[in-house]
Write a structure and sequence with these properties.
Layout (H helix, E strand, L loop, with lengths): L13 H5 L4 H20 L2 H16 L3 H6 L7 H7 L5 H12 L13 E7 L3 E7 L4 H19 L8 E4 L7 E3 L2 E4 L1 H6 L4 H4 L2 E2 L2 H4 L4 H12 L4 E5 L2 H15 L4 H4 L5 E5 L4 H11 L5 E7 L2 E8 L2 E6 L5 E7 L22 E7 L6 E12 L2 E8 L3 E2 L6 E2 H15 L3 E9 L8 E8 L6 H15 L1 H8 L7 E4 L4 H8 L17 H6 L5
Parallel strand pairs: 1-5, 3-6, 3-7, 7-8, 8-9, 19-20
Antiparallel strand pairs: 1-2, 4-5, 9-10, 10-11, 11-15, 12-13, 13-14, 14-15, 16-17, 18-19
Length: 517
Amino acid sequence: MLPGLFFVGKAISPFYFCGMGFKQTALRPFAGIISRGIDAWSSDAVAAQQRQFEHLVRIGRKTAFGKDHGIGEIKSYDDFKKRIPLRDYEGLRSYVERIKNGEKDVLWKGRPLYFAKTSGTTSGVKYIPLTRDSLSNHFGTARNALFHRYFKTKNGDFLDGKMIFLSGSPKMEEVGGIKTGRLSGIVNHQVPAWLKTNQLPSYTTNCIEDWEEKLEQIVNETIGQDMRLISGIPPWVQMYYEKLLEKTGKSTVKEVFPNFSMFVYGGVNFEPYRAKLEELIGERIPSVETYPASEGFIAFQDEVENSGLLLNANSGIFFEFVPADQIFDANPDRLSLRDVELGVNYAIIINNNAGLWGYDIGDTVEFVSKNPYRIRVTGRTKHYISAFGEHVIGKEVEQAMNTVAKKYGIPIIEFTVAPQVNPKEGLPYHEWFVAFGDIPADLGLFAQEVDEELSQQNIYYKDLIKGGVLRSLKITAVQQDAFRKYMKTQGKLGGQNKVPRLSNDRKIADVLEGFLL
C-alpha cells in the first residue's frame, strides 16, 4: 500500500475541483507548486534539516519526555546527542503506555490521533503514534511524489481512471481511546471523498482478513474497470496479476487494463521481481518507488532515470545516521545529514513530530548522491548473515542475484539466504532458497557465478571462502509458490508483509525445506 496517496488537508482545496472531473488539467498548477517546493528544499536539505531540528526541540521541551531528558537545555546537535539516547521501541514503551493510559503531552503535544500497530521480533506488538502534526508526512509525501513526477514528465494519465491499493484491512480498534490499526488500513480512513470514487478495492473487500479470499474479490471488482494506477508490495502485486490473468484468460495485464500507466511500490527492492512482473504486464510500466514506514515516510524516487530515493528532509523528521557496524555499540558515532558520506552503510535514526526520539527503525541505507541527498535501502540491522564474521547484508545478496539472473534472463520469484553451520558433510556454507520463474539450465554454474558476485561485494565473505572456513554457496530450488506457502504458515500472507532476505539462523530455511522441488 502507498500510504496517503492523496491525503487532503484544509489547505489543499484544488483537490475539490479534481473530484468534479478536471483531473489532469485542473491539477497541473497544483502539481507545479508541489514540484517547485520539492526542488527548493532538496537543493539545501541540510538547512531544511536544521529547521526540522529546531522545531522538534521547541515543541518537545514541553512534553513529559522533553522534561525527563532536558530538551529545553538543548542548543545544538552536540547537546542533543548528549541528552537523547538511541533506542528501539522498548526504550519508548513506558511512554507509550502512559499515552495508552490517557495521559497527554507525553512524547508530543496533545495525544496521538492514531496508533499504527506493527509487530516486532523482540518487542511483540508495537504501537507507533501518529499525531495531527505527523499526518502530512505519512499522507502527503506519497501524493507529492506522484505530483512531482506528473509535473516533471507531463504524464498524468493515471489521474483519469481507477486506482488500486493492495493493502491491509482498514478495520480499526481502540487502544486507550486512540484509533489503532495497520498503517495501510489507517490510510483508507484518510482518503478524501472525491478519490473514493476512483479507489479500488471496495471498503468491504479491503476488510476481508484472509488474503486469498480477499484477492479473489479484488480481481472480481477490478475486471472491466479502467485501471490506471496499481500500488502495492511487488510479491503480492504479482499474485494479483496471476489471478487476474487466470480469471480473464488473457496473456498480459495490459490486455486487461490497456490504460494501466503507473506502478507505485515500496517496502522491498523491486529488481528481483522486475522481470517476472514485466512479463506478466507485457511491457515496462512507468513506476515510482517509495520508502514508507510506520514511523515515517522516509524517501521517494524523484527522477525517472535515477533509482536513488530523495531523502524526505523537509517533512517533520530530523534524521541521524549511525555507521551500521556500530549500531550495537554502547557509544556509536551519530551523524547529522551534513556529515554523511557516499557508499557507507548507515543505520537510519529518526526524531519526528509524532514523538519518536533517537528511534532506530531497524533499516540500513547508503547515500548514492549528496546533491541532492538520495539514498537506497541496503537492508535491516537484524537481517544479515554473520555466522563466521562475514556480515553479509541484503544489498549484497540482491545485487549478486540480480546480476546473474539478468545475465541469463532468469526470472526470480523470491529468495532468501540462511547459513548452514552444521552440514552433514564438508565445510559450512550459505544456503540460498530460490523460487525460480524458470530453472537455470545449469544450476551449479548459476550458483558459482552468484558466489563470485557475492565475493566481489563482500571481502570478508571472499576471505572466508579462500581461507577454507566456508565453502561456496549452495542454491536450493523450491516450488514457485513456496514463499507464499511459508508466509501463509506464519499468518503473514498479503498486506504489507515481506519475506526477510537474510536470516542469521535456520528458522525460515527449516520451513522452506518442506517445499523443495
